[in-house]
């Protein structure tokens, strides 16, 4: 407000001056603020009963400032990045995990996967045109159930007995992982990602090719360092590169 924010001390003085029945213009002159700034402070930070108390006003101001900082994270660059990854069928967990690894290089703020879900939900519920309105269609469905999976694109290319992603377990406990394979630029290789669904923790490994043997080997190596108590189930992309899921599952038992 004005040229700088009111401090706790300013608010205590303001409360005393209000109690002394001084006019807003007189108070503004004493504190060195514009009358409109004092009026705005009283309107925003007074109690429901209309009384102005310094401690309550300070708490309200701090809460509002924190809320504004969180809102400022939703920059146009970050929105564009999240939109792009969602269209590429990345999950919010994967997007948040990648940001943790590369936020500095990408010059983007850090956000949690829960924030991405919240953006999509809030924008989808809005009657106005919003950045993430309609992006719910890119989210993978979540229902409790079996282990390895994702929705199928073509029945000919995929194993008929590979469980669907709709049957994957929920994210109520640690140890349920979602795996995917990301294509490198101009076929320079592949990045195998594994995201722990409850925490959003991400592991990644480089695969030279996308054949079954290479991907299966990378999976075994990636999860060999994960304690068994945090390795309950794996959910796979339904691509043919994961056709070795049975061998991987057996090796990790």
Automatic annotation (TrEMBL):
The record's section on Pfam families has:
HTH_38
Ranges that cross the membrane:
none
MF terms (GO), sorted A to Z: nucleic acid binding; transposase activity
Q: Name one GO cellular component term.
A: cytosol
PANTHER family the record matches: TRANSPOSASE (PTHR10948), TRANSPOSASE INSI FOR INSERTION SEQUENCE ELEMENT IS30A-RELATED (PTHR10948:SF23)
User: What are the GO BP annotations of this UniProt entry?
Assistant: DNA integration; DNA recombination; transposition
Report if keyword Membrane is assigned: no
What this protein is called in its record is IS30 family transposase
Record-linked InterPro entries: Integrase_cat-core, IS30-like_HTH, RNaseH-like_sf, RNaseH_sf, Transposase-Integrase, Transposase_IS30-like
Q: Does the keyword section mention S-adenosyl-L-methionine?
A: no
Domain Integrase catalytic span(s) in chain numbering: 165-253
């Amino acid at each position: 407000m004005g040229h700088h924010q009111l401090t706790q001390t300013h608010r205590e003085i303001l409360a005393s001056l209000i109690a002394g029945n001084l006019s807003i213009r007189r108070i503004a002159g004493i504190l060195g603020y514009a009358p409109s700034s004092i009026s705005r402070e009283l309107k925003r930070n007074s109690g429901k009963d209309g009384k102005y108390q310094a401690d309550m006003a300070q708490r309200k101001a701090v809460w509002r400032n924190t809320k504004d900082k969180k809102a400022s994270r939703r920059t146009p660059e970050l929105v564009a990045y999240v939109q792009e990854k969602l269209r590429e069928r990345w999950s919010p967990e994967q997007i948040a995990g990648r940001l943790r690894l590369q936020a500095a290089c990408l010059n983007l703020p850090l956000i949690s996967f829960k924030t991405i879900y919240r953006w999509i939900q809030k924008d989808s519920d809005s009657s106005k045109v919003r950045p993430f309105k309609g992006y719910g269609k890119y989210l993978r469905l979540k229902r409790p159930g079996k282990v390895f999976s994702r929705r199928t694109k073509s029945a000919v290319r995929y194993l008929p007995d590979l469980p669907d992603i709709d049957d994957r377990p929920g994210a109520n406990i640690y140890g349920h992982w979602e795996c995917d394979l990301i294509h490198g630029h101009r076929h320079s290789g592949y990045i195998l990602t594994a995201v722990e669904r409850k925490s959003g923790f991400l592991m990644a490994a480089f695969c030279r090719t996308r054949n079954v043997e290479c991907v299966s080997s990378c999976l075994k190596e990636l999860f060999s360092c994960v304690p068994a108590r945090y390795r309950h189930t794996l959910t796979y992309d339904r691509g043919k590169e994961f056709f070795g899921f049975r061998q991987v599952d057996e090796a990790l038992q």
